[in-house]
Design a protein that fits this description.
The protein is mainly alpha-helical. The chain has 13 helices and four strands. The protein has a four-stranded mixed sheet, with helices on both faces. Helix 7 packs parallel to helix 9 and helix 7 packs antiparallel against helix 10. The longest helix has about 35 residues. The radius of gyration is 28 Å and the shape is elongated. The protein starts with a helix and ends in an 11-residue tail after the last helix.
Length: about 375
């Protein structure tokens, strides 16, 4: 036991004394927690340019124009004479959407005939186009319900709409892009910085020795505990402090987060020790992280649904700690899931811990060696 604690202290000192390791494993985690979420602080897009082609030129069309211009997400920047001119401006990048108000709109409404409106969006930027089309469509829907009341008043006794839809987001209360993406990316940042730090230390040590690294079991256990403590610091820094400062959904099932987070970090450390055992220099760790970060995020199915991913990639993703770890922590912290609801992720992480732990022992264990990571 004393050798395990000695190896644990030695590993922590190695991290503190190695400027590359401390910057990657601690400095980058803290730095990213402030600067990465800053890009999404507004959560939703606002004041995106919209063009309105008014072919009706009536009081009704002018009222619709005022409603569109009052939207938070959209701002009417022009009224081209026809649709062709508006489309040219849209293709030139001067607007994100076009609303066409056809002729005889007011007349059709007053006569009780179905009135039609045309909404076009710029698909070059899917995020902005989605916000514009969705928000303008909601405004047009509200305008249509008011028009129905006007029709009823013109043709008989006025009646209010029979059904009113009230939407209340359950988890992402601000319906923001940041609240949907940043919590998942935070777990990926912790995973990648931890792997990079492990790779830097193992690769640097192997470069100095000029041979494959080997450790006895107590030394290897102490190393894993040291790396695990650093990883848990980063994970709960994001899940607690950063989520609180940046005002993201948080606080669900703290005991589950402790259990699930510990299992996620343990599987990550085992995976990092196994992968890091192949690095001959510390630079290999940086190359690995640069090449894998974006694929790991997409394979986690947080922003791209698993049902639209080829089945072989879905199976491959289950071999990565990030797939289960990201979904596990997001569901426990942001959605207040119970342990039963994330049992599949817990079992997968436990299996990965055993798998990569055994592979790391196969690569690094030496019954006779006593060498640890030294600064």
């Amino acid at each position: 036991m004393s050798r395990i604690w000695h190896s644990l202290r030695q590993t922590l000192l190695a991290v503190l004394c190695d400027r590359y390791a401390i910057v990657v494993m601690v400095g980058a985690v803290i730095l990213y927690s402030f600067f990465y979420p800053a890009a999404y602080r507004h959560q939703v897009a606002g004041n995106l340019p919209v063009l309105v082609v008014d072919e009706d030129h009536s009081a009704t069309s002018r009222e619709l124009l005022r409603k569109l211009d009052s939207l938070r997400v959209a701002h009417v920047v022009g009224q081209p004479a026809d649709l062709q001119e508006a489309r040219a401006q849209l293709e030139a990048g001067q607007a994100e959407g076009i609303v066409l108000i056809p002729a005889n709109l007011e007349r059709d409404i007053l006569r009780g005939h179905p009135a039609k409106l045309v909404l076009l969006g710029n698909g070059a930027y899917l995020g902005r186009a989605s916000w514009v089309l969705g928000s303008v469509a909601d405004a047009l829907g509200a305008f249509g319900r008011e028009a129905a009341v006007t029709q009823a008043a013109f043709m008989g006794a006025p009646q209010a709409p029979p059904v009113t839809l009230v939407q209340r987001p359950l988890f992402n209360t601000q319906e923001g892009y940041g609240s949907a993406i940043v919590p998942g990316v935070a777990e990926l940042i912790v995973h990648q910085t931890l792997l990079m730090g492990i790779g830097v230390l193992l690769g640097g040590r192997r470069l100095v020795l000029g041979r494959r690294l080997q450790f006895d079991l107590p030394t290897l256990t102490g190393m894993a505990l040291g790396f695990g403590l650093i990883g848990l610091f980063g994970l709960f820094w994001y899940a607690g402090f950063t989520a609180w400062v940046q005002d993201y959904p948080r606080g669900g099932n703290p005991l589950g987060q402790l259990l699930g987070g510990t299992l996620f970090i343990a599987a990550t450390v085992a995976f990092g020790l196994f992968v890091g055992s192949f690095f001959r220099t510390r630079e290999r760790a940086f190359q690995y992280i640069i090449a894998t970060s974006i694929p790991l995020f997409f394979l986690a199915s947080l922003s791209w649904p698993a049902v639209m991913t080829p089945r072989p990639l879905v199976w491959l993703a289950q071999l990565l700690p990030t797939t289960s770890g990201i979904n596990l922590m997001v569901r426990l912290n942001q959605m207040d899931a119970s342990l039963a609801e994330v049992s599949r992720e817990l079992i997968t992480l436990a299996a990965l811990l055993v798998l990569y732990g055994a592979l790391a022992l196969w690569r690094l264990r030496n019954q006779k060696g006593t060498e640890g990571i030294k600064s």
